User: Fold these one by one.
Assistant:
Number 1:
Amino acid sequence: MRSCKKIKTLPTGYALYFHIGETEKKCFIEEIPDETMVIGKYRTQLWDKQTGSFLPATPGLGMHVEIKDPDTKIILSRQYGSDGRFTFTSHTPGEHQICLHSNSTKMALFAGGKLRVHLDIQVGEHTNNYPEIAAKDKLTELQLRARQLLDQVEQIQKEQNYQRYREERFRMTSESTNQRVLWWSIAQTLILIVTGIWQMKHLKSFFEAKKLV
Amino acid sequence: MGSIFDLSAAVRLYLLSCFVVSVDFTLGLGQSQDTEFTFLLPAGRTECFYQTSTKNGSLEVEYQVIAGAGLDVGFTLISPSGYKLASEFRTSDGIHTVEPTEDGDYRLCFDNSFSKLSEKMVFFEVIVEGQPGDAWGDEEWADMAEPESMVEYKLEDIRETMDSVHRHLDRSRQLQTMLRAFEARDRYLLEDNLWRVSFWSSMSLLVILTVAVTQVYTLRRLFDDKRVCKP
């Protein structure tokens, strides 16, 4: 019997990190199908000259997050603190661009211009919060795991539908290129023949006029 | 008539727990963390990413240049102790595995300094195994949810769900086959295109040469005829 239920969240493993300069902008591209949720989490650390290591960043040192959709329209443009979490759901399939840059100008003074950013971007079914779903729908363990499998498969299907749409576009481009190549080649041949005939006629009349022939 | 429902409750519970354990094994007890990014690498710059790993794990890095003139980039992988594990100059894709890993931060660098003008779009994926707490164990799953009750209909539920998953996966496989056929067709179309371009270009060239020769010959004939005709 469990009297108190521990809601455990997935402990974060070691995410990838990179260094960012003061006015530097780093952009990441996510190619996703439509109606897909994306959650990005980041954590910043500041270089401390005294201890010679990276310490958790002071508040006031934030990151500006800008997200553009495939039509280069900005769907999110917000300032977050030193640790932030941003979410968006795609409404059109395609390449979404996530750009991060630091808003601080004082960094050069404190940190020697180096800020370490740990970034983790989760897409699709990885964004689902299973403890929350279990509590809301009152699911047992097997039901919850089955739900996870179903979410995974749903994401695969979405991805494939998107692939099909992309392939169609590729096919159209390819066919139009094919048409263009064919018509231009025929046109070029005709132009050449016509030019040749015209040249000969012109020269013939020229020589006749000059009484050379 | 012996059927599964004739068995005692204890035996049924045992069978169910066996099923749970086997499902757990198939879902994968291996704890691995998978990070992938697609980023823009400006011309003339080098970008580095760092991945922390533990001792005796494994690290796999795969990268591919998706866009940008030449589709190539330089890649280096440096271990926490400063030892250069991989160094590639101007390649379009690569895959490297480090096993066993040291404790510390591995450094991956993408180098586009040889290019003055073109920006590259690079996709890379880092798979780390042996990280603590990546996957949920049995206890965490059990903690999250309500306790199991009523074993009888559970097997039926499980069978139904598994069937649904199986059908979806079948459909996925069918779609994939269809897509593969389309892709092959497009590839043949492009290859035909190439042949057509070559053929018609040669024809054009032939026509040009023929026309040029005919012109010259006609001109000369005009002169020759008149000379013959004039007394």
Note: DSSP finds three helices and nine strands in chain A.
Number 2:
Amino acid sequence: MRFRAKIVDLACLNHFSRIINTIAKLAKTCILRLTVCKLYFILSDKVANGGASMWCELSQGNFFDEFQMEGVAAEHNEIYLELVPENLSRALKTSQSAKAVKIKLTNKHCPCLRVAVELPSLSSSSRIVTHDIPVGVIPRRMWNDFREPSVPDFDVSIYLPVLKTMKSVVERMKNLSNFIVIEANLNGEMNLKIESDLVSVTTHFKDLGNPPWASEDGCQSSAQGRDLESMTEACIDIKKLQQLLAGQQVNPTKALCNIVHKRIVHFILLHEEVSLQYFIPAIA
Amino acid sequence: CILQCFLSLAVFGRAIHAIARISDEFWFDPVEKGLALRSVNSSRSAYACVFFSSMFFQHYCWTAVSQPCQQEQHLSLPCKLIIKSVLPVFRCANVLERNVEKCSISTNPSDHHITFQLLCRHGVVKTYNLTFQECDPLQAVFAKHMCPNILRVHSRLLADVMIHFPTSQEEITLSVTPMKVCFKSYTEEDTDFSRTMLTEIQLSPEEFDYFQVGVDSEVTFCLKELRGLLAFSEATSVPVSIHFDRCGKPIAFSMEDLLLEASFILATLCEAEEEAASPGPACCPRPRDR
């Protein structure tokens, strides 16, 4: 099992750092899956995570100048590592002006991702900062636990409002309640509602638009004689929603959510080079 | 003694903040040549001294008051102050410089008070009367010139190095050979490597203003206590000198210019005594001791 990668371009490095920062806000521990073409950050929906799960996918070619990977075996040319994304975020944080960043899988005292940052210095030789981030190697028999979640059979799919606005609304609501109800309809309307003993607050968003989903048998397409005004709702943990919104450092190209009535909310945030899916189950 | 002086706030305030990292109380020790602030931590493994020469002050007046029982050469008796009571006076050093026109410090030994008076804009005067405790003098004696390893570096460089370590990092190890310098997270035999992120920074000797390595060594000291000095030296832009020897012997970080001198002397861990139960480092700079 081998892994070596290098980033030389500063813009790519900053972009990669921002993605890691977002992941670090969503998960204390997660799985990094490496394949020849892509990197995945995966959080599976175990009870320990409060049932939320995450799937983040990026093409290595968009970030790395060099990327060499040899998986556990020829037919299974992939590597699954468990790590604390906050450590990776910290290692990259001070690499803003780096000449190059190299990442390598090593095994000194235990399996580690070694991040070596080459920084400019006052002398002819560069300054090298090395961070050894401990990782756990996930054995192949457990890989099935981390498969890509399928898009649920949703009732409503709707584009999200401007994330900055949504974030400030949710942050204020967080002070009043632990749970938030997201409801939306096929008419581009979404409401965020909270209720406590003393107060209930609803924020209404209009004209958001509903994404068109093409599917083989057309059963998920929006206009099927369904009542466009009827609301689909799910009550979720407000902290999870706030973490998702707080972690967004750049506006995504597309941001939408799929709601299964009273079951789950599936968020999809698409940027040019990275896609992030986050599932928050509804509270019973 | 009676002391009256006016001073430049930002630097003085930063010195107090730096010393606050060592301990909750400090020695306020005015002498004829200037004012020394000293502190030592409870385990006696870290000692700090900042000395402001009389030229640092706009006005410095020190008068010895002879007392019948004082016979030896120390005409002044240092006093001990609780840092917590002094810090509020110098909170937000940056803001202070803008709002405060003058600061004066005067001592009145007969009623055991030190008075800090800030003359601010718009005629506002803030007066702080703090009680002090008389106490024995405190001074660490450390023969810097006998250290085989001496590095001098601009304060910006040290700050740039330490920023890579998390603020929670307690101890770091400085490892030198004539060819390279390396600062790294401290690890011991029973460190759980599967849970700990380790950081290491390698520098070339060329980055130092002065580089002398007489003996290859690896010394481990407390980073938390040093951070105070780093912030202080960044504020004053005075380069920092590092004097040290093999592990177990103290390491001194010092800065010196015409107006002030600062030294932070920290004990270093000694490999042979790592098994000892006491959490503090083995060798300490004792008063009058090496």
Note: Residues 156-281 of chain A form a domain with the Proliferating Cell Nuclear Antigen fold (CATH 3.70.10.10).
Number 3:
Amino acid sequence: MDIIGAENYNADKQMDDPQFTPRRAARNRTKPKKYDEFLDTPVAKRKTRCYVSSSDEDIDENTTPKPKALFGNDDVEGQDIFKFKSRHTKNDLHNKVKAAVTHTSINTNSPMKTPRKNLNLLQKATEATPKHVVNIMKKKIIKEVESDSSDSDFSGSSSDFVPEKSDEENDSSASDSGSNVEDENCPKKSTTSLITRNRGSKLKQKDAEYFVTPDNYFMMNSSKKITTSDHTLARLKNMNLDENVREADIHMSTEHQNRITDLTETYDQLFDRWIYVLSENFNVILYGIGSKRQVLQRFQSKKLHDMPCIVVNGFFPSLTMKNVLETIVVDLLENTHVPSNIGDAVNLIEAQLDECGVHLFVIVHNIDGVMLRSFKAQSMLASLAQLRNVHLIATIDHINAPLLWDHSKLSKFKFTWWDVTTFLPYIEETSYENSLMTQRSGVLQLSSLKSVYQSLTTNAKGIFKIVIEYQLENQKQSHYQGLPFKDLYSKAREHFLVSSDLALRAQLTEFLDHKLVKQKRTLDGSENLVIPIESALLQQFLDQLTTFQ
Amino acid sequence: MKSKYQDNNMESTVSVSKGVFLFSNGFKRAKHLKKKSKQPLFDSLFNKEPWYVTYKYNWNAIEIQLKELHEKTYSVLLNDIVSYVKSFDQDHQYDSIEGIIPSATLLTGVNQPDHANQFLALIHKIREDVTPHVAMISSQDASTVKHLVESAVSQLIHGQDYLDDSADDSMTEQTIRLKKSQCTMRALHNWYQSKYVSTSPKKLKHAAPKKTLVVIMPDFESFSCNILQDFVMIVSSYITSLPIVLIFGVATSVSALHKSFPYHVSSKLLIKVFHSHPSHVYMNQVLENIFLTHTSPFHLCGRAFELLTDVFLFYDFSVTGLVQSIKYCMMEHYYGDNIKALCCSPDKIEETISKLTSVDLEHIRQLLSFRPFLEIQECETKIGLFEDDNFFREVLCKEMHKLHDYLYSFYLCVRLLSALVKDLPKNLLGKTVREIYAKCSIEHVTNTQPFKECMQLLNFQSQVKMADSIKNALKEINSVLQIVSPVKPLRSTPSKTNMNSIAVNNDLGQDFAKSISIHFLTFLRQIENAHNEAPVLAYANHERENDLETDIIPGNRYKLKEKLLKATRVEKIQSEFEMVRSRFVSYLEEMFAKGLRPPRTQTFHEILFFSDLSSVKKQIVGSPRGALHLALNNPVHYLQCSCCHLPSPESISEWLPDVSIAYKLHRECGKHINLYDWLQAFAAVLRPDEEDDERYQDAGIQVRFTRAVAELQFLGFIKSSKRKTDHVMRLTW
């Protein structure tokens, strides 16, 4: 934790001294407001770093050395990224949205919406409320909430707040500093109430220090139960987005588009510097949000157009280190095969590149890609990057990417770090990935289901339909085992779909091959058939079928 | 045309079947083999720039120094190991013990990156002194026992050419090279028999004494235990016919060895442990001998220096890393700036100055530290400085020499201070030269509280200690004085008359050092002589105390108290030693006030001192996570757009980029996030005015949300979860 924290929370911005940063000077960044706050809060932390004056000499003897220049005032405060949050409630999300909405749209000007800051003030003011009163009030409110939580649509609103036992117990026990109740009106609904958990002033103060609140971590992880609402994406009516819509242009305002082009152009000025750094046997690593492919491609076409160059897409799902080595050893250096031992392969590359007096540039998009995350791949890349004639330019995106390297690897990589934030969408990078959303909405599954289904014979279609219908009817059982083979056979016979047991099995193999159906054996030895697709999707499929016919 | 090329390029690196793309850009191996003498690629890029030439020259000099220092530091340790290995080479006392492998364990410390050099030096040394047959096996070559044995055996048989290609004469007569797959212990045995044993009866005098075979494993901890155990067992079965010695490099402690070897294996090993220096000792040596001297061409300002030592002390303990960081600072210092060509050794200054163009001179005139210098000049001189390039060159030359003189005395004073302060209690200024350097170069150290306290403490020091520390200080001075600076004679005669009008305080440099040396010598003599007088006074005091004691009637505490009080009121007569001591301390204060002015007070210090900490910090200590958070939390910082200004960093507005909105919303959730709710919140932020139903049906919003979620997943903030339908897990707190 310490190391990661220390390594990462040095996001230093150089705005304090603009004359030192020629490339950024023109842009003249405004100082983000939060720094003012940062400067206020962690006073205690800062103090320890200063020199202890002579008055408290006794303490002085035992102080451990503190880094002096490592952390500057302009760093991103580690607390902001890493601190243990106190327990999240459902309302956090809602409150956030509300705060945002009040800020943006003034036209609603409802007096009952309290901006966040006022909220805090209010909480402080009401802190003196005796505990038992609070508890009574809270119980009342919970009752109320429960009563009208039946038919609201908007998840964030308090209406779907389902109070839990664990919560209640927590609150009533003395350990918690007490919760606070606040009446608030929702703009569009009838009067409902919100329960906001008060962190209490004591706890809040502790929060200001980085390391004092591990309790919160345990609080957060104590209950196994997932305390979110039970809504699923099935509630969306247009679950399956059209292919065309999905591929539509990434939404971005024109202002942002212009700014992003400006931003990426400033990075072009770094190209010469990179070449210089590379020439001194350092390697270059780029980080920051946004796809960095474009920047690197420009770099390649501008600066590396007459040198041998290898581009590795680390995000490519079936990339192996062997591919990379093969490209270098076989395709570039024209050998017949790659030595099986990694050390030998690296030695070979070193010797041959040296012999030719040529420098090889390796560009790795996403060195933290899924296939490159193994220890072996990284140590291989490290020993390649270490060679005098190999120069590595890599990008990282994952937040935990720096954990890939231990310090012997880091010393081989000899990275220089460059912040290349572009805000460009990760189009190629995420294209191979099964997005959480699209997977849920099941467009792919549905379309593949359809295409397989359409190629079936009418009899097979009938059999498949039987399985679907049975599954949809019976899925609500707690232990749905699937449709027993025997039952299927009898049903299929009834519909004159098959005449014999064997014929049915022949049909079934087709389904099994396409993974439309899974076979399960139960304890008593009977075969059961299950379709491994969610019921909502199946229902939709069935609906579509009936409309087509 | 260009854009077309770019487009082609773009498309060509995206494929559904390939992840690696080659752009050979006209490279053909056969072609390049012929014209081998082609100039290295990079040299042609910068070679003509004066700054680059100076940089390269200076860095090479530093590298040579580093190498020398390195050899010096490790020589003792390496000699120990080599003589240990030798002992098995000569007397075969251990032959009698069945199956015991002699082995050395080198405790290297956790700074593994530094060890490569150490082991290379060891190999070199063993080659020279003991045996040509050395194998070094790193853990990545030893994924199985087979690989391990193969690479060990082939290195032992084929000797040097694995590690350096220089010795090729002897290798040519070597018989056919064995293939990797043929390298087994049996092959090694046969080879050894034919080389050393079987020939011995024929020509006894030629048959050199049996050479030991040395196998080195530099990173013991990264090997898998089972493989090592097997290897040890195999070797032990051959040990009667093959004199093998194992050397392990262990980063942690000896217990690592015992943990990975069970009794039946460790009983086969005769282990002797060697300790190497802790890395911080080595770091101090490197810094003190190479970078914190007046001979170093390039100097770091205090803050930058602190950053680098902090990285060392708090992150990696690696001296190699430290040197690389310093190298990076140096690169940054010189990059693209021709006036930095002046950042060279003093004897080259004239030459460099004569080569500077008037544009460069103009750059120098714009340096910030030139201003105070200008202000104290007379009007005429001022005009001359601006208009007459030649005159300016002369002044510049003079000032640069002055700067070097200043450096000379500055580093001398730093060393003196550290020699004097080192043994004081409480470590107010730090113990090592580097700590004191960092303090001195940041501020006027003589004005600070710690310095004053140190001087006070010095004022309490005993005679013996004082004499000792003065002696130490004198040693420092003499070692510095021995490095004769060639500057002196060159600049003794000012060529122009108006040169004299320039205010010069020429009291630094070597003269300064000499005067300090003389002063210290006299003080030392005085203090040592004062030794004789001191006991008399002490004795007198002692007698009076005795008086006191005899007077005391037991039990009469009040009287005793009275007397003690009276005794304190009696004025102490300063002994001679005390007088000398206080004079010495006041001399020190005066001297340090003169010699320890921080670099930024000097004219043209920018040329020699690297002070642009902020520009290198980002590159040396990356902050990928911080940058991500900052960009997502406050996009304005990067985008500089007018639309995204937020009232507070936590707030959300619909104008923010989609990822940023999704990120901020997800921070409000607990460990699990309901995708549906998240989507609704997202939609509510984007379309605050619309009716709920309308908003939910908007496919556009869904698409945007889907993309944002996919990107957050790609960035590692969330992952899918099977615990509940349509939920994702949050991966950060």
Note: The beta strands of chain A are 180-183, 193-196, 283-287, 309-313, 360-365, 390-395, 415-419, 483-484, 518-521, 527-530.
Number 4:
Amino acid sequence: MAARTALSDSRRQVVKTMISFGARSMSSSSSSWWRSVEPAAKDPILGVTEAFLADPTPTKVNVGVGAYRDDNGKPVVLECVREAERRIAGNKNMEYLPMGGSLKMIEETVKLAYGEDSDLIKDKRIAAVQALSGTGACRLFADFQKRFSPDSQIFIPVPTWSNHHNIWRDAHVPQRPYHYYHPQSRGLDFSALMDDIKNAPSGSFFLLHACAHNPTGVDPTEEQWREISYQFKVKGHFAFFDMAYQGFASGDTVRDAKSIRIFLEDGHLIGCAQSYAKNMGLYGQRVGCLSVVCEDEKQAIAVKSQLQQLARPMYSNPPVHGALIVSTILDDPDLKKLWLKEVKGMADRIIGMRTALRENLEKLGSPLSWEHITKQIGMFCFSGMTPEQVDRLTSEFHIYLTRNGRISMAGITTGNVGYLANAIHEVTKST
Amino acid sequence: MRSQTDHTPSVGSVTDRRLSCLLRHLHPSPSSSAMESDRTISALPTSSFGSDSVFAHVVQGPEDAILGVTVAFNKDPSPIKLNLGVGAYRTEEGKPLVLNVVRKAEQLLVNDKSRVKEYLPIVGLADFNKLSAKVIFGADSPAIQENRVTTVQCLSGTGSLRVGGEFLARNYPQRTIYIPQPTWGNHAKLFPLAGLSVKTYRYYDPPTRGLNFQGLLEDLSSAPLGAIVLLHACAHNPTGVDPTIEQWEQIRQLMRSKGLLPFFDSAYQGFASGSLDADAQPVRMFVADGGECLVAQSYAKNMGLYGERVGALSIVCKSADVAIRVESQLKLVIRPMYSNPPIHGASIVATILKDRNMFDEWTVELKAMADRIISMRQQLFEALRARGTPGDWSHIIKQIGMFTFTGLNSEQVAFMTREYHIYMTSDGRISMAGLSSKTVPHLADAIHAAVTGHLIAIKIAMSSNGIGLKLKQYYKLLLLLLLMESTFQDPSTCRVTILRLQ
């Protein structure tokens, strides 16, 4: 009896809602379908740039989003990219790429990650598709993981790029954390990391940052990577590498891919997301690649076909322009050399700024240790500042960064490093 | 397997840890089971193990029905082949076309040293969004002037539909979308993945090769209150059958009275009739009544920007405040999908739409494409009439846009592919854009042959020793062929195919 009443209650509620729908649609003064839509929270990272742009203060500094700036604080288009664009413009048609993207670009991109002479490439064991930069590559993999390992979860480092959480959530893959950052040392919590790897159920999926961990800048050493790889073998875990900074971290694309190469040597069948956003400065072009290592060519063909099945209902086929820039550059030995030189230039400037920031802080007599600034690598530095200190940096000094204390080194210049050091010193000196 | 040595992580250096790990495997404890020591773990941590892929069970996915046609076409070595599969415009010479105005815009962008390639905002290029809304809703649209429209840049039509679908699945209580029967194949794939359940409404009427208007009205009438309805704004894909303006008005009234939410797929604005405004009429009618709707726009065909993936999703809301909130929710869908949209194509579009002269140039080139297609329709219709192909082929000129639903069945389509190397989707859809004055006769021949069934398949049984065909049967066969040849006025339409069976 009670159940029936409850049912008819809810039914009545549904009918009421439906009637109000109908009423809404008929009169122009009636309310919207979207009345109940809440304003969404701002994206923590991209929201910073929005706030920065809205600030009228001339001395403002943006060390929020990870887009490279030159020493004048200006965005950079690489020379090799400008040249590639000159060659492309007027010479290509804009036909649809295949669902899996530009074959030429994929070929070159896979070589970068796996090595020019990789046997995996020779044996055609890599299923690879062009993806919408790193985000798109991660999302495609997450969707693929959901579809073909539906009971699996993803282990994600703490902390990580905030969008990783959004990606696997929207793919409906449950997430589990694993220890990574060690706040006290501002370094790697290696023993806790290894424990988490050992304690995870066998055959778990792990997200690893191949180099230049975002947001901490803390990477395992080569020795540590070997141990991680070994333990992964023992547990039969799946390694998914997000490599967004190859070349950008140390200045050397081969060195930055070391972690992946170690895993490949150990025979792991990995997955890898690659992005040209930072290392080729192609941010807005959305160029990247998702690759999955398979047992043999036949399996690679099957996996690639399934990845395409996921891309088709999302965007049909990927954008051609960025892919053409990449393949034009990587296919031409001179342009490729120029690119490698320019990447090293960017990496070197960042390493220079790390040194400068640390020296400035030490010169100011900061009581804290800032060693981690030069130990960490890549675009970001996990300063160790609290959200409250960050808020002070923004409100008092008009310095914009994410509240987790992550500083984008690329936003630092010889012109603003002194101001930044001073501000950081001010808000942290009483710590 | 319990380790013999109690291993505490904090003890010893990295090397010690690794060595003790190795030792455990080199000298397993007596309590370890046989199964454990069978595990393929070599003593050398860097040697290659033969591991199983976690994706070993993944089977080959089916070829996409539409894009697979081009794949098959490309494989065909025949010198005389025709690709009428995917809806990409071709010139009279059968070449892809980049519009002059697009080339101009590209050059401007390349030469502009101040341009950078930074990330666009999640919602895309602001200029592009504003101008796209004007293109579809009209420059003087009150909805735009009242700030009731939120427009976000997406990856062409597909991306706009997917993002719109995901937004609805999360923010709209009625999670059913009605799609026309038939419709573009990808619709049925992308909406379920977005989180909506899909139902169909009657649309195409095979006997008349036109609109099943009664069926459409009945099905929409019986849809639950608030259901979402996918409408092709113009140039229905794959049929080319559009409602008349009067029929659109009836559809609008019905939908508004039933509280159904319109979701327009506008992939061919300007491409259908040659006029941007005329092709946008149905959408504008719905906006004019003050109600809400969603619109997915694509610049793939009408600006020839196919591979650049340029499109926009617009949501017309009741108020500016709602539009702002809706936009913030759209960002939550986009960010975990691809963060922000590609900049190049949108920059081209914005460059063109912003400049009065370039905009006018575009409309002229667009009309030329539409006119060529209309002319192809006329030519094909006349060619079939000249051949006396049985049936009413007037639908070829009555239908509109890039596609014609020929009415051919899958066997006839397969025949045309096999015998005439004509590639099209198995539902009988042909892309008129792939035709030229030179190739119309070939297509007409093929359709004629397929329809009149002038195909004689003769099966000859072969024994394992060789040809087991008896002499008597052979002569019977020869007689039959001669008889048929003399019967047909045009022997070239008579094809004899001998199939061998083991």
Note: Residues 1-12, 25-50, 455-468, 488-502 of chain B have pLDDT under 50 and may be disordered.
